[in-house]
Amino acid sequence: MKYLCLIYDNESEWQKFTKEVQDKYMGEYTAFGDSIKKSGQYVGANQLQPSHTATVVRARNGKVSTTDGPFVETKEQLGGYYLIEAKDLNDAIQVASRIPSARFGAIEVRPIVERKQA
Amino acid sequence: MREDIAAHVRDTVDAVYRSESRRVLATLIRLLGDFDLAEEALHDAFATAVEQWAEKGIPANPRTWLVSTGRFKAIDRLRKSARFESVDSSIVERLEATETPEQDEEAVEDDRLRLIFTCCHPALSPDAQIALTLREVCGLTTEEVAHAFLTPPPTLAQRIVRAKAKIRDARIPYEIPSRPDLPARLDSVLHVIYLVFNEGYLASSGTSLTRADLSGEAIRLGRLLVELLPEPEAMGLLALMLLHEARRSSRTTPSGEMILLEEQDRSLWDRQKIEEGVDLVERALASRRFGPYTLQASIAAVHAEASSSSATDWPQIVGLYDVLLRADLSPVIELNRAAAIAMRDGPEEGLALIDAILVRGDLTDYHLAHAARGDLCRRIGRVEEAISSYERALELATQEPERRFITRRLEQLRLASPR
Fold first, then answer.
1. Which of A16, A100, B241, B285 would disulfide-bridge A28, Cβ 3.0–4.6 Å?
2. ipTM for the whole predicted complex goes beyond 0.95
3. CA-to-CA distance for B101 and B104, rounded, in angstroms?
4. Is A1 part of the contact surface with chain B (CB cutoff 8 Å)?
Protein backbone atom coordinates (compact mmCIF):
# COMPACT_ATOMS: atom_id res chain seq x y z
CA MET A 1 0.00 0.00 0.00
CA LYS A 2 1.19 3.51 -0.80
CA TYR A 3 1.41 6.39 1.64
CA LEU A 4 2.21 10.03 1.01
CA CYS A 5 4.47 11.54 3.66
CA LEU A 6 3.96 15.32 3.63
CA ILE A 7 6.83 17.22 5.17
CA TYR A 8 5.98 20.28 7.24
CA ASP A 9 8.87 22.51 8.29
CA ASN A 10 9.19 26.02 9.62
CA GLU A 11 10.60 27.89 6.61
CA SER A 12 11.79 30.94 8.53
CA GLU A 13 13.69 28.70 10.98
CA TRP A 14 15.29 26.93 8.04
CA GLN A 15 16.49 30.25 6.56
CA LYS A 16 18.14 31.12 9.87
CA PHE A 17 20.34 28.01 9.68
CA THR A 18 23.96 28.52 8.58
CA LYS A 19 25.05 27.08 5.25
CA GLU A 20 26.92 24.43 7.17
CA VAL A 21 23.84 23.29 9.09
CA GLN A 22 21.72 23.33 5.92
CA ASP A 23 24.28 21.15 4.14
CA LYS A 24 24.36 18.69 7.01
CA TYR A 25 20.55 18.53 6.92
CA MET A 26 20.48 17.95 3.16
CA GLY A 27 23.09 15.22 3.63
CA GLU A 28 20.75 13.50 6.07
CA TYR A 29 17.97 13.72 3.49
CA THR A 30 20.20 12.10 0.86
CA ALA A 31 21.09 9.29 3.27
CA PHE A 32 17.42 8.77 4.16
CA GLY A 33 16.44 8.69 0.46
CA ASP A 34 19.15 6.12 -0.25
CA SER A 35 18.02 3.94 2.63
CA ILE A 36 14.40 3.71 1.43
CA LYS A 37 15.52 3.15 -2.15
CA LYS A 38 17.60 0.25 -0.89
CA SER A 39 14.70 -1.20 1.11
CA GLY A 40 12.38 -0.89 -1.91
CA GLN A 41 10.00 1.52 -0.13
CA TYR A 42 10.78 4.56 -2.27
CA VAL A 43 8.19 5.44 -4.90
CA GLY A 44 8.81 9.15 -5.42
CA ALA A 45 9.84 12.38 -3.73
CA ASN A 46 10.18 16.08 -4.33
CA GLN A 47 11.23 19.18 -2.48
CA LEU A 48 8.97 22.19 -3.04
CA GLN A 49 9.92 25.83 -3.56
CA PRO A 50 9.06 27.90 -0.44
CA SER A 51 5.39 28.65 0.25
CA HIS A 52 5.67 32.28 -0.91
CA THR A 53 5.87 30.89 -4.47
CA ALA A 54 2.44 29.23 -4.09
CA THR A 55 -0.57 30.20 -6.19
CA VAL A 56 -4.15 29.17 -5.47
CA VAL A 57 -6.39 28.53 -8.45
CA ARG A 58 -10.19 28.11 -8.47
CA ALA A 59 -12.56 27.60 -11.38
CA ARG A 60 -16.18 28.69 -10.76
CA ASN A 61 -18.84 28.84 -13.47
CA GLY A 62 -16.20 28.66 -16.13
CA LYS A 63 -14.29 31.56 -14.64
CA VAL A 64 -10.79 31.01 -13.33
CA SER A 65 -9.68 32.97 -10.31
CA THR A 66 -6.07 33.07 -9.24
CA THR A 67 -4.85 34.27 -5.85
CA ASP A 68 -1.63 34.46 -3.95
CA GLY A 69 -1.05 31.30 -1.89
CA PRO A 70 -0.51 29.18 0.08
CA PHE A 71 -4.00 27.69 0.46
CA VAL A 72 -3.66 27.51 4.26
CA GLU A 73 -1.40 29.76 6.32
CA THR A 74 0.26 27.66 9.00
CA LYS A 75 3.17 27.98 11.38
CA GLU A 76 4.89 25.13 9.54
CA GLN A 77 4.73 24.92 5.78
CA LEU A 78 4.51 22.06 3.33
CA GLY A 79 8.04 21.78 2.02
CA GLY A 80 8.11 18.49 0.19
CA TYR A 81 6.93 14.89 0.17
CA TYR A 82 7.89 11.28 -0.12
CA LEU A 83 5.62 8.74 -1.74
CA ILE A 84 6.42 5.41 -0.15
CA GLU A 85 5.38 1.78 -0.35
CA ALA A 86 4.63 0.32 3.10
CA LYS A 87 3.07 -2.85 4.46
CA ASP A 88 0.66 -0.99 6.74
CA LEU A 89 0.35 2.21 8.79
CA ASN A 90 2.83 1.03 11.44
CA ASP A 91 5.39 0.40 8.71
CA ALA A 92 4.68 3.84 7.19
CA ILE A 93 5.00 5.53 10.61
CA GLN A 94 8.35 3.82 11.05
CA VAL A 95 9.59 5.23 7.72
CA ALA A 96 8.13 8.70 8.37
CA SER A 97 9.83 8.87 11.76
CA ARG A 98 13.20 8.62 10.02
CA ILE A 99 12.60 11.61 7.70
CA PRO A 100 15.04 14.27 9.01
CA SER A 101 12.29 16.90 9.36
CA ALA A 102 10.40 14.64 11.78
CA ARG A 103 12.87 15.85 14.42
CA PHE A 104 12.13 19.56 13.89
CA GLY A 105 8.84 19.83 12.05
CA ALA A 106 6.15 17.22 11.46
CA ILE A 107 5.28 14.58 8.89
CA GLU A 108 1.66 13.99 7.88
CA VAL A 109 1.15 10.43 6.68
CA ARG A 110 -1.76 9.94 4.28
CA PRO A 111 -2.77 6.63 2.68
CA ILE A 112 -3.23 6.71 -1.09
CA VAL A 113 -6.59 5.53 -2.47
CA GLU A 114 -6.05 2.29 -4.31
CA ARG A 115 -8.16 1.61 -7.37
CA LYS A 116 -8.46 -1.79 -8.87
CA GLN A 117 -6.96 -2.12 -12.32
CA ALA A 118 -9.70 -2.42 -14.93
CA MET B 1 -39.85 -30.69 27.77
CA ARG B 2 -38.90 -29.03 24.48
CA GLU B 3 -39.42 -25.65 26.15
CA ASP B 4 -37.13 -26.75 28.97
CA ILE B 5 -34.40 -27.62 26.48
CA ALA B 6 -34.89 -24.35 24.60
CA ALA B 7 -34.66 -22.37 27.84
CA HIS B 8 -31.55 -24.27 28.88
CA VAL B 9 -29.89 -23.62 25.52
CA ARG B 10 -30.77 -19.93 25.70
CA ASP B 11 -29.22 -19.71 29.18
CA THR B 12 -26.10 -21.50 27.95
CA VAL B 13 -25.81 -19.25 24.90
CA ASP B 14 -26.19 -16.19 27.17
CA ALA B 15 -23.48 -17.47 29.50
CA VAL B 16 -21.15 -18.28 26.60
CA TYR B 17 -21.84 -14.83 25.16
CA ARG B 18 -20.80 -13.17 28.41
CA SER B 19 -17.63 -15.22 28.84
CA GLU B 20 -16.52 -15.76 25.24
CA SER B 21 -17.96 -13.13 22.90
CA ARG B 22 -14.96 -10.76 23.21
CA ARG B 23 -12.50 -13.57 22.53
CA VAL B 24 -14.51 -14.79 19.54
CA LEU B 25 -14.71 -11.23 18.19
CA ALA B 26 -10.97 -10.68 18.60
CA THR B 27 -10.22 -13.83 16.59
CA LEU B 28 -12.85 -13.08 13.93
CA ILE B 29 -11.37 -9.62 13.33
CA ARG B 30 -8.02 -11.27 12.62
CA LEU B 31 -9.52 -13.91 10.33
CA LEU B 32 -11.81 -11.52 8.46
CA GLY B 33 -9.60 -8.43 8.52
CA ASP B 34 -12.52 -6.11 9.15
CA PHE B 35 -14.25 -4.90 12.33
CA ASP B 36 -17.77 -4.53 10.91
CA LEU B 37 -17.67 -7.86 9.11
CA ALA B 38 -16.42 -9.53 12.30
CA GLU B 39 -19.20 -7.95 14.39
CA GLU B 40 -21.85 -9.17 11.95
CA ALA B 41 -20.23 -12.60 11.93
CA LEU B 42 -20.25 -12.68 15.73
CA HIS B 43 -23.94 -11.80 15.76
CA ASP B 44 -24.71 -14.46 13.11
CA ALA B 45 -22.72 -17.10 14.97
CA PHE B 46 -24.66 -16.56 18.21
CA ALA B 47 -27.99 -16.46 16.36
CA THR B 48 -27.09 -19.78 14.73
CA ALA B 49 -26.07 -21.20 18.11
CA VAL B 50 -29.54 -20.53 19.53
CA GLU B 51 -31.10 -22.50 16.65
CA GLN B 52 -28.64 -25.34 16.28
CA TRP B 53 -27.55 -26.10 19.83
CA ALA B 54 -31.16 -26.95 20.76
CA GLU B 55 -31.28 -29.58 18.01
CA LYS B 56 -27.76 -30.89 17.83
CA GLY B 57 -26.59 -30.31 21.36
CA ILE B 58 -24.01 -27.93 22.78
CA PRO B 59 -20.62 -28.37 21.10
CA ALA B 60 -17.66 -29.59 23.13
CA ASN B 61 -15.76 -26.38 22.50
CA PRO B 62 -18.30 -23.58 22.03
CA ARG B 63 -15.66 -20.96 21.27
CA THR B 64 -14.11 -22.89 18.37
CA TRP B 65 -17.60 -23.64 17.07
CA LEU B 66 -18.53 -19.95 17.22
CA VAL B 67 -15.36 -18.81 15.45
CA SER B 68 -15.74 -21.28 12.59
CA THR B 69 -19.49 -20.64 12.26
CA GLY B 70 -18.88 -16.89 12.29
CA ARG B 71 -16.25 -17.27 9.61
CA PHE B 72 -18.54 -19.34 7.36
CA LYS B 73 -21.35 -16.85 7.82
CA ALA B 74 -19.02 -14.00 6.87
CA ILE B 75 -17.89 -15.82 3.72
CA ASP B 76 -21.55 -16.36 2.92
CA ARG B 77 -22.33 -12.68 3.34
CA LEU B 78 -19.36 -11.68 1.22
CA ARG B 79 -20.27 -14.13 -1.52
CA LYS B 80 -23.84 -12.82 -1.65
CA SER B 81 -22.75 -9.21 -1.76
CA ALA B 82 -20.06 -10.06 -4.32
CA ARG B 83 -22.74 -11.35 -6.65
CA PHE B 84 -24.77 -8.16 -6.55
CA GLU B 85 -22.19 -5.50 -5.94
CA SER B 86 -18.82 -5.30 -7.50
CA VAL B 87 -17.10 -6.45 -4.31
CA ASP B 88 -13.61 -7.83 -4.66
CA SER B 89 -14.12 -11.59 -4.96
CA SER B 90 -10.47 -12.21 -4.15
CA ILE B 91 -11.24 -11.57 -0.46
CA VAL B 92 -13.78 -14.41 -0.50
CA GLU B 93 -11.34 -16.68 -2.30
CA ARG B 94 -8.57 -15.91 0.13
CA LEU B 95 -10.89 -16.54 3.10
CA GLU B 96 -12.12 -19.83 1.67
CA ALA B 97 -8.60 -20.98 0.98
CA THR B 98 -7.39 -20.48 4.54
CA GLU B 99 -8.47 -23.18 6.92
CA THR B 100 -9.63 -22.07 10.36
CA PRO B 101 -6.48 -22.85 12.32
CA GLU B 102 -6.63 -24.69 15.60
CA GLN B 103 -7.05 -22.08 18.32
CA ASP B 104 -4.83 -22.79 21.25
CA GLU B 105 -5.05 -20.59 24.33
CA GLU B 106 -1.98 -18.59 23.38
CA ALA B 107 -3.35 -17.72 19.93
CA VAL B 108 -6.63 -16.58 21.49
CA GLU B 109 -4.80 -14.40 24.03
CA ASP B 110 -2.70 -12.88 21.27
CA ASP B 111 -5.88 -11.97 19.43
CA ARG B 112 -7.21 -10.21 22.52
CA LEU B 113 -3.98 -8.21 22.76
CA ARG B 114 -4.13 -7.37 19.05
CA LEU B 115 -7.62 -6.01 19.60
CA ILE B 116 -6.54 -3.88 22.58
CA PHE B 117 -3.52 -2.43 20.78
CA THR B 118 -5.53 -1.69 17.64
CA CYS B 119 -8.34 0.05 19.55
CA CYS B 120 -5.74 2.13 21.45
CA HIS B 121 -3.64 2.93 18.37
CA PRO B 122 -2.21 6.45 18.76
CA ALA B 123 -3.20 7.28 15.17
CA LEU B 124 -6.81 7.34 16.43
CA SER B 125 -8.07 10.33 18.43
CA PRO B 126 -8.08 9.80 22.22
CA ASP B 127 -11.90 9.98 22.31
CA ALA B 128 -12.09 7.35 19.59
CA GLN B 129 -9.60 5.10 21.38
CA ILE B 130 -11.75 5.17 24.52
CA ALA B 131 -15.03 4.61 22.69
CA LEU B 132 -13.64 1.79 20.58
CA THR B 133 -11.96 0.04 23.52
CA LEU B 134 -15.11 0.12 25.65
CA ARG B 135 -17.21 -1.17 22.78
CA GLU B 136 -14.98 -3.79 21.21
CA VAL B 137 -12.83 -4.97 24.12
CA CYS B 138 -15.31 -4.55 26.98
CA GLY B 139 -18.46 -5.25 24.97
CA LEU B 140 -20.38 -2.17 26.10
CA THR B 141 -23.09 -0.95 23.75
CA THR B 142 -22.76 2.41 21.99
CA GLU B 143 -25.63 3.70 24.18
CA GLU B 144 -23.86 2.61 27.36
CA VAL B 145 -20.60 4.30 26.37
CA ALA B 146 -22.45 7.46 25.29
CA HIS B 147 -24.35 7.57 28.59
CA ALA B 148 -21.22 7.11 30.69
CA PHE B 149 -19.39 9.91 28.86
CA LEU B 150 -22.43 12.20 28.77
CA THR B 151 -22.20 12.28 24.99
CA PRO B 152 -25.22 12.07 22.64
CA PRO B 153 -25.34 8.50 21.24
CA PRO B 154 -25.28 9.66 17.57
CA THR B 155 -22.05 11.60 18.24
CA LEU B 156 -20.48 8.55 19.82
CA ALA B 157 -21.70 6.23 17.07
CA GLN B 158 -20.19 8.61 14.51
CA ARG B 159 -16.89 8.58 16.41
CA ILE B 160 -16.79 4.77 16.28
CA VAL B 161 -17.69 4.68 12.57
CA ARG B 162 -14.86 7.14 11.80
CA ALA B 163 -12.35 5.19 13.88
CA LYS B 164 -13.20 1.95 12.11
CA ALA B 165 -12.94 3.69 8.74
CA LYS B 166 -9.49 4.95 9.67
CA ILE B 167 -8.37 1.49 10.78
CA ARG B 168 -9.52 0.12 7.43
CA ASP B 169 -8.48 2.93 5.07
CA ALA B 170 -5.13 3.85 6.62
CA ARG B 171 -4.52 0.13 7.20
CA ILE B 172 -3.78 0.12 10.91
CA PRO B 173 -2.49 -3.43 11.32
CA TYR B 174 -4.07 -5.96 13.65
CA GLU B 175 -0.93 -6.83 15.53
CA ILE B 176 0.91 -6.77 18.82
CA PRO B 177 3.60 -4.07 18.51
CA SER B 178 7.17 -5.19 18.03
CA ARG B 179 9.57 -4.93 20.97
CA PRO B 180 11.06 -1.51 20.03
CA ASP B 181 7.56 -0.01 19.63
CA LEU B 182 6.07 -1.73 22.66
CA PRO B 183 6.84 0.83 25.43
CA ALA B 184 5.26 3.74 23.54
CA ARG B 185 2.29 1.68 22.38
CA LEU B 186 1.74 0.27 25.87
CA ASP B 187 1.68 3.85 27.21
CA SER B 188 -1.14 4.62 24.86
CA VAL B 189 -3.14 1.59 26.12
CA LEU B 190 -2.45 2.46 29.76
CA HIS B 191 -3.52 6.04 29.14
CA VAL B 192 -6.86 4.92 27.72
CA ILE B 193 -7.49 2.67 30.74
CA TYR B 194 -6.46 5.47 33.11
CA LEU B 195 -8.83 7.97 31.42
CA VAL B 196 -11.71 5.50 31.64
CA PHE B 197 -10.97 4.94 35.33
CA ASN B 198 -10.78 8.65 36.12
CA GLU B 199 -13.98 9.36 34.26
CA GLY B 200 -15.68 6.89 36.59
CA TYR B 201 -13.78 7.90 39.71
CA LEU B 202 -13.74 11.68 39.65
CA ALA B 203 -17.32 12.19 38.57
CA SER B 204 -19.92 12.03 41.29
CA SER B 205 -23.64 12.43 42.00
CA GLY B 206 -26.43 12.46 39.48
CA THR B 207 -25.37 9.77 37.08
CA SER B 208 -22.80 8.47 39.57
CA LEU B 209 -24.03 4.89 39.38
CA THR B 210 -23.21 4.29 35.73
CA ARG B 211 -19.99 6.21 36.09
CA ALA B 212 -18.78 4.01 38.93
CA ASP B 213 -19.27 1.16 36.48
CA LEU B 214 -16.67 2.83 34.26
CA SER B 215 -14.07 2.44 37.01
CA GLY B 216 -15.06 -1.21 37.26
CA GLU B 217 -14.62 -1.59 33.49
CA ALA B 218 -11.20 0.08 33.70
CA ILE B 219 -10.11 -2.30 36.47
CA ARG B 220 -11.35 -5.29 34.43
CA LEU B 221 -9.33 -3.97 31.46
CA GLY B 222 -6.30 -3.47 33.69
CA ARG B 223 -6.58 -7.05 34.95
CA LEU B 224 -6.92 -8.39 31.43
CA LEU B 225 -3.84 -6.47 30.34
CA VAL B 226 -1.75 -7.69 33.30
CA GLU B 227 -2.88 -11.24 32.55
CA LEU B 228 -1.97 -10.96 28.86
CA LEU B 229 1.10 -8.75 29.17
CA PRO B 230 2.55 -8.61 32.69
CA GLU B 231 4.64 -5.46 32.14
CA PRO B 232 5.58 -3.50 35.31
CA GLU B 233 3.68 -0.36 34.35
CA ALA B 234 0.54 -2.38 33.54
CA MET B 235 0.78 -3.80 37.09
CA GLY B 236 1.45 -0.29 38.42
CA LEU B 237 -1.67 1.10 36.78
CA LEU B 238 -3.84 -1.78 37.99
CA ALA B 239 -2.46 -1.26 41.51
CA LEU B 240 -3.14 2.48 41.32
CA MET B 241 -6.74 1.88 40.28
CA LEU B 242 -7.34 -0.78 42.94
CA LEU B 243 -5.86 1.38 45.71
CA HIS B 244 -8.07 4.32 44.73
CA GLU B 245 -11.13 2.14 44.24
CA ALA B 246 -10.56 0.69 47.74
CA ARG B 247 -11.34 4.12 49.19
CA ARG B 248 -14.44 4.80 47.11
CA SER B 249 -17.07 4.25 49.80
CA SER B 250 -15.25 6.52 52.26
CA ARG B 251 -14.83 9.43 49.82
CA THR B 252 -18.39 10.71 50.09
CA THR B 253 -21.16 10.90 52.66
CA PRO B 254 -24.39 9.03 51.84
CA SER B 255 -25.79 12.35 50.57
CA GLY B 256 -22.86 12.74 48.17
CA GLU B 257 -20.74 15.26 50.09
CA MET B 258 -16.99 15.04 49.59
CA ILE B 259 -14.78 13.77 52.43
CA LEU B 260 -11.05 14.56 52.31
CA LEU B 261 -8.50 11.78 52.73
CA GLU B 262 -7.51 12.86 56.25
CA GLU B 263 -11.12 12.77 57.44
CA GLN B 264 -12.11 9.49 55.82
CA ASP B 265 -13.25 6.56 57.94
CA ARG B 266 -10.43 4.17 57.14
CA SER B 267 -12.36 1.18 58.47
CA LEU B 268 -14.49 1.49 55.32
CA TRP B 269 -11.50 0.92 53.04
CA ASP B 270 -11.63 -2.31 51.07
CA ARG B 271 -8.78 -4.36 52.58
CA GLN B 272 -8.87 -6.99 49.85
CA LYS B 273 -8.33 -4.43 47.10
CA ILE B 274 -5.58 -2.77 49.13
CA GLU B 275 -3.81 -6.08 49.62
CA GLU B 276 -4.01 -6.87 45.92
CA GLY B 277 -2.83 -3.36 45.02
CA VAL B 278 0.11 -3.44 47.43
CA ASP B 279 1.14 -6.85 46.14
CA LEU B 280 1.11 -5.55 42.54
CA VAL B 281 3.13 -2.46 43.51
CA GLU B 282 5.77 -4.64 45.10
CA ARG B 283 5.99 -6.86 42.01
CA ALA B 284 6.27 -3.81 39.73
CA LEU B 285 8.93 -2.16 41.91
CA ALA B 286 10.93 -5.39 42.04
CA SER B 287 11.20 -5.35 38.24
CA ARG B 288 13.26 -2.12 38.42
CA ARG B 289 11.65 -1.15 35.08
CA PHE B 290 8.76 0.75 36.63
CA GLY B 291 7.51 4.21 35.70
CA PRO B 292 5.05 6.92 36.79
CA TYR B 293 2.01 4.65 37.29
CA THR B 294 3.94 2.41 39.67
CA LEU B 295 5.26 5.45 41.56
CA GLN B 296 1.77 6.92 41.92
CA ALA B 297 0.54 3.52 43.07
CA SER B 298 3.37 3.39 45.62
CA ILE B 299 2.19 6.72 47.05
CA ALA B 300 -1.39 5.43 47.19
CA ALA B 301 -0.08 2.29 48.92
CA VAL B 302 1.66 4.31 51.65
CA HIS B 303 -1.66 6.10 52.34
CA ALA B 304 -3.56 2.80 52.26
CA GLU B 305 -1.30 1.22 54.83
CA ALA B 306 -1.48 4.10 57.33
CA SER B 307 -4.04 3.96 60.15
CA SER B 308 -4.56 7.74 60.08
CA SER B 309 -3.33 10.88 58.36
CA SER B 310 -0.94 11.66 61.22
CA ALA B 311 0.40 8.09 61.27
CA THR B 312 1.22 8.32 57.54
CA ASP B 313 4.85 7.95 56.49
CA TRP B 314 5.04 11.47 55.00
CA PRO B 315 8.84 11.42 54.47
CA GLN B 316 8.41 8.37 52.24
CA ILE B 317 5.60 10.06 50.32
CA VAL B 318 7.76 13.15 49.76
CA GLY B 319 10.60 10.88 48.58
CA LEU B 320 8.30 9.13 46.10
CA TYR B 321 7.11 12.48 44.75
CA ASP B 322 10.75 13.49 44.30
CA VAL B 323 11.36 10.41 42.13
CA LEU B 324 8.10 11.00 40.25
CA LEU B 325 9.11 14.62 39.54
CA ARG B 326 12.38 13.44 38.09
CA ALA B 327 10.44 11.25 35.64
CA ASP B 328 7.71 13.79 34.90
CA LEU B 329 8.25 17.46 35.72
CA SER B 330 4.59 18.38 36.02
CA PRO B 331 3.27 21.26 38.16
CA VAL B 332 0.37 19.10 39.38
CA ILE B 333 2.87 16.61 40.83
CA GLU B 334 4.75 19.56 42.32
CA LEU B 335 1.52 20.70 43.96
CA ASN B 336 0.92 17.25 45.45
CA ARG B 337 4.50 17.18 46.68
CA ALA B 338 3.97 20.58 48.32
CA ALA B 339 0.94 19.18 50.16
CA ALA B 340 3.06 16.24 51.38
CA ILE B 341 5.83 18.64 52.49
CA ALA B 342 3.19 20.56 54.48
CA MET B 343 2.35 17.34 56.30
CA ARG B 344 6.00 16.47 56.89
CA ASP B 345 7.50 19.87 57.73
CA GLY B 346 4.50 22.04 58.55
CA PRO B 347 1.98 24.21 56.64
CA GLU B 348 4.37 27.17 56.18
CA GLU B 349 6.86 25.06 54.19
CA GLY B 350 4.11 23.69 51.98
CA LEU B 351 2.61 27.15 51.48
CA ALA B 352 5.95 28.58 50.33
CA LEU B 353 6.18 25.88 47.63
CA ILE B 354 2.61 26.41 46.41
CA ASP B 355 3.17 30.18 46.24
CA ALA B 356 6.32 29.58 44.19
CA ILE B 357 4.33 27.46 41.69
CA LEU B 358 1.59 30.11 41.43
CA VAL B 359 4.04 33.02 41.13
CA ARG B 360 5.70 31.20 38.24
CA GLY B 361 2.31 31.35 36.50
CA ASP B 362 1.67 27.60 36.56
CA LEU B 363 -1.66 26.24 37.82
CA THR B 364 -3.16 29.72 38.28
CA ASP B 365 -6.37 28.38 36.68
CA TYR B 366 -6.32 25.07 38.56
CA HIS B 367 -8.93 25.12 41.34
CA LEU B 368 -7.13 22.53 43.48
CA ALA B 369 -4.00 24.71 43.69
CA HIS B 370 -6.07 27.52 45.21
CA ALA B 371 -8.02 25.13 47.43
CA ALA B 372 -4.75 23.64 48.72
CA ARG B 373 -3.39 27.12 49.37
CA GLY B 374 -6.61 28.07 51.15
CA ASP B 375 -6.35 25.00 53.36
CA LEU B 376 -2.75 25.71 54.42
CA CYS B 377 -3.55 29.38 55.15
CA ARG B 378 -6.52 28.21 57.21
CA ARG B 379 -4.29 25.90 59.24
CA ILE B 380 -1.92 28.68 60.21
CA GLY B 381 -4.72 31.14 60.96
CA ARG B 382 -4.29 33.42 57.92
CA VAL B 383 -8.05 33.59 57.62
CA GLU B 384 -8.34 36.46 55.11
CA GLU B 385 -5.87 34.84 52.73
CA ALA B 386 -7.61 31.48 53.15
CA ILE B 387 -10.92 33.10 52.21
CA SER B 388 -9.57 34.74 49.06
CA SER B 389 -7.87 31.50 47.94
CA TYR B 390 -11.05 29.47 48.48
CA GLU B 391 -13.04 32.17 46.65
CA ARG B 392 -10.71 31.81 43.66
CA ALA B 393 -11.01 28.01 43.87
CA LEU B 394 -14.80 28.30 43.85
CA GLU B 395 -14.70 30.46 40.70
CA LEU B 396 -12.69 27.75 38.94
CA ALA B 397 -14.30 24.53 40.26
CA THR B 398 -16.91 22.91 38.04
CA GLN B 399 -17.91 19.71 39.84
CA GLU B 400 -20.84 20.11 42.20
CA PRO B 401 -19.52 18.11 45.20
CA GLU B 402 -16.25 20.07 45.06
CA ARG B 403 -18.13 23.37 44.85
CA ARG B 404 -20.26 22.45 47.86
CA PHE B 405 -17.15 21.47 49.80
CA ILE B 406 -15.42 24.77 49.07
CA THR B 407 -18.60 26.67 49.92
CA ARG B 408 -18.77 24.94 53.32
CA ARG B 409 -15.15 25.81 54.01
CA LEU B 410 -15.82 29.44 53.08
CA GLU B 411 -18.82 29.60 55.42
CA GLN B 412 -16.74 28.27 58.33
CA LEU B 413 -13.94 30.74 57.60
CA ARG B 414 -16.28 33.71 57.32
CA LEU B 415 -17.73 32.85 60.74
CA ALA B 416 -14.21 32.90 62.17
CA SER B 417 -13.30 36.04 60.29
CA PRO B 418 -13.45 39.36 62.17
CA ARG B 419 -14.66 40.98 58.94
1. A100
2. no
3. 9
4. yes
